[in-house]
# Entry
Amino acid sequence: MYFSDDLSSFRALVCGSTQGIGRAIAEELAGRGATVTLLARNEASLREVAAALPATHGQTHDYLTADFSAPDLLAEQLQAYLHQHPAGFHILINNTGGPAGGPLLDAPVEAFRAAFDQHLVCNHLLAQALVPGMKAAGYGRIINIISTSVKQPLPNLGVSNTIRGAVASWAKTLANEVAGFGITVNNVLPGATLTQRHTSLIAKKVEQTGQSIDDIEAGMLRLIPAGRFGQAAEVAAAAAFLASPAAGYITGTNVPVDGGRTSSL
# Structure
């Protein structure tokens, strides 16, 4: 039996999609034919990225301006959008910037609350809004871009390790609840990927340790069997596969895209 990776009949909502992994996923889905709605907080960047997305299948891409630091407002804005676009979405890419680095015990309690809202709560609100339409269509793909820390906590990322684990457990629970409706829920776990976050984390290590950028990168690369950092497009390719009909029997799992760095299966 042949399963196509053509997404030309599907609509996708891609969060955090003006840069990095989110933008790469939006480009990959659009390149495979999906009609993409970008979601981020900077309208100027959204307008620019939407205009540059591939549209070889005649798609008309658009965007929704929202801020994940205000979950209730996000829910209101999404409902207003769905009222104007009742067809809804077949694909949801949950993706937003990670919490700031630092030791766990140094983190203020508010940092956990803010990260919980921006990651788990916003993911949940988006799923609540979109799953009814996915059920009606008999097709849904919810893909959460989180971190390899759900398998192996990463040093100096205390808040991120904690919140990413919560999102992974939320996703597994949701996957079991919606599988019978043709909806899958999976997590993509990027490793060290060349994005702005990667650059900022290295800069913080430089500040904390006094080491050079080259020395820090060399130390990171020694932990990666592939011997290099990942590209955002490589993470996007994994997400696009999970969004396709070909991945219909894959649900409730974590897919690391990390060059082999994670030491567990």
About this structure: The chain has eight helices and seven strands.
